[in-house]
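Minutes, methods subgroup
Present: GH (chair), OT, SY

1. OT presented the first of two proteins processed in the latest run. Sequence and structure tokens recorded below as shown on screen.
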Amino acid sequence: MTAVARAFGIVISVRVLLIEDDVKLAERTAEYLRDHGAVVEIVADGDGGLVRAQAGDHDIVLLDLMLPGIDGLAVCKQLRRTSGVPVIMLTARGDEVDRIVGLELGADDYLPKPFSPRELLARMRAVLRRGAATNANATELRVNALAIDRERHVATYADTTLELTAFQFDLLWVLARSAGKVLGREQIYNEVRKLRGDSPASFDPAVDRSVDVHMSKIRAALTGAGPEGATVVRTVRGVGYVMGDEA
């Protein structure tokens, strides 16, 4: 990360998937974003890009419209069936129809080529801020086959209602809200407390055991709802839990 980036506060610590077949543009863009704190993965074709995007390993996807294999519009359409990851479409085609179709398919923003890397960074920050605000105020979440409705206090997996206690329901919500990110047991516990309007609790070894017990109940409910349910929540040894890629 450059000293200039730190000095001006233009740092963006996120995991970026750049799906772009123009090698020089991809490397130049990735270098700029890496200089500003991002971790960038480049994929040069639509089919491979869709696979990586669906894995849930990234915070934002930068998606070229014209790609080998399936094009960017098809990637965006298929990705939106299972993921809410922010998507910014990049394209040399200036046709307004392409822009409108991309946004209607679920892209969060659209940037025509040639673009300034600095403008791209600003667009990324704006999209991520909007996403964070939406998640913070959301009353419904969907992560693939898992759907959670806080207003109705109902969680379903593969259209099967999960039998959960109030604490387990809130715990599942916390994980779904941060799908793809590893959360420690104490962090999970305190996020649940905040949902309930309680102050964060000081560290207590009993918290880890309590979270583990509730997590085992959640896993049992998910497994009972469908054979793939066992893969929704994964343990990260020595750290905590993550709502996994197959959720």
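2. SY then presented the second protein from the same run.
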Amino acid sequence: MGERLIHIEDLHVEVEGREILRGIDLSVDKGDIHAIMGPNGSGKSTLAYVLTGKPGYVVTQGKVLYKGENILDLPPDERAKRGVFLAFQYPTEVPGVSVVNFLRTAFNAIHPDEPKSAMEFRLFLQEKVDLLEIPTELVDRYVNQGFSGGEKKRNEILQMAVLEPELAIMDETDSGLDIDALKHVSAGVNKLAGPDVGIVLITHYQRLLNYIRPGAVHVLMGGRIVKSGGFELAEQLEAEGYSGVAKELGLSQEDIAEVEQAEGSKV
């Protein structure tokens, strides 16, 4: 077992007065890969945003200890400096800013005592580009502008490679990817995984987990983790759906109906 990286205890979160997370308990160690699966509206992205400090998410109860430090009062940039990284489900376009300049600015902000010159950073970035087998011309384009879905996600993995986080949270990285792009992005994540980083994969579907194998799988429903297990749990979800697991757990008819409605809204 690796060093404890993040410990979440009894986390309750509201958004615009509505409770979304209703008591999350989760611990991730360095070297771990955890998958969080659940239907639409279960609170998966809310958890990612709370861990990375997105405004508008109000913690009403509980704590989040990252390497022993309560980070809930830290702004997003301070969390990033401490090694927390989020790969977005829908990466934002930044017109007029090249990928290389964006990444160099981010790198130097996180490493103010060891900033890299433009030439030093180009050489460093090329190592990451070569490792991930990303087309070199991508880094000279404006951030995500005109990028395909696959290019956006590959750019997110490149950011992860450059920033070298200790905790990487990947919010539906498989969203909108065809099978070739999914394989390429997954291969990149696997190259960056290792004993010094903990990875949290947030996804609807098992297919991502066929390429990035988690050591633990957690089912999030109604703002709570209702079941945890190994890869076989992801296979069960693929076979039975979330409503099948909800019925197995003896959840209320109201909760089951909510899950079935969410499953029906997936695209």
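Chair's summary of item 2: The radius of gyration is 19 Å.
Next meeting: continue with the remaining queue.
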